[in-house]
Every structure is written in structure tokens, then in C-alpha cells.
Amino acid sequence: MTRKLSLTVDGKNVAVHLHKGDLPETVSFTGAVAVDSETMGLSLVRDPLCLVQLSDGGGEAHLIQFDRASYDAPNLRRILTDVNTLKLFHFARFDVAMFMRDLAVVCAPIYCTKIASKLVRTYTDKHGLKDLTKEVLGRDISKEQQSSDWGAAELSDAQLAYAASDVLHLHALKAKLDVMLAREARTEIAQSCFDFLPTRAALDLAGWEETDIFAHS
Ligand code: MN
Asked: How far is the CA of 92 from the centre of ligand 1 (A)?
């Protein structure tokens, strides 16, 4: 079941496709796909996955809402695991762990704008999506609906617009961050960090979430 909505997202009119349970087979993406998810909270033990958002950077967003009873979503799983489709995230570590737990997939290959930001924007500690988008792209995005009830059967237009917003800027951010990574000669180390993310997520799920296994003590 799909509903197509036209919503105002960050001041622009955006086509938002809301799907229940899985992405329809007919939806395909070209190039890299921006991915985000919304959950009942930040606990990898307690909080189920509620919504997954996708965009190929063309200005539309696809949202997949789960009933939290089953996560049988073969079409979504196919994209998340497609070796030829780069998945762009902001703080991939959390989403990738959630997907590992609830969708039973190892999501790859990955690009994380938060890791890229930390590797190049060493002059600040503001690496949240709102601050990053404001500085790098000069765009204002709202984070008002971040803490809202993503488990509701009917999500509000404000929630859907917020959820869409989180995947609409990642392609542009990647383009800028790639230039900065090259300038600082940190492209390769960034790639190694991205490649390590599924392992980092597996460690989080296995109980090492708060432990830096590379630390001396
Ligand atoms: Mn989000």
C-alpha cells in the first residue's frame, strides 16, 4: 500500500511516497541512495525500527513504515545489501545496527557524512546534521520532529516532512565533504572507516556499544 503526498520540506515542495511494510518492486533508484531511519528511541535493545527513508537525490523521498510485528521487506533488503548501490547516511553506525537487528541485513557499501565531517571539520565539534547542512550547504533544516512518536499508526505530515528532510541533503553534503576529504588527504582513511561500520554495528549489538576496544584501558 502506497500513499503519495506533496509536502513542504525545508521550504520546498517535495513528493513523498509513503509505503507500508516494504518498498514496491517497481521503485528503482539510480546511483547512490540516501538512507535514514526512525525508531522508538536510541536503545539497540529496547527500541524497534519504525520507518526507513530513502532518496536517490532527485528530490523525492520514499518512506517505508513498519507495523513492528514483522520486518519482511525483501525489496528494501535488496537495496540495502546491493554491492553496486552506495548508501549515504548521517551517523550510519546506528541505522546499520538497527538494520542488522530488525531487517537481518549487513548494509554495504556505506558512506557516512558524520564520519566525513569529523575527519575534515576539525575546527568544530558541531557534527549534527542541522549544523553540518547549515555550514556546508547554507541550508536551514528543521529538527523539530526528531523526538516524536514514530510508532504511531498514522504519522503526521510534519513527521513525514521531517523524515524526508533527513535524506534530501545527503547527496549534496557528500559532494562537498568529498572535496574537503581530498584536500585534507583523508579520503582513504574515511573509506576505511566506512568499510568498518558493519563491524562497529555488530560490536554495538554484541554489548561493546560503550567500549572502545582500541583504547588502552
Ligand atoms: Mn532521521
From this structure: 11
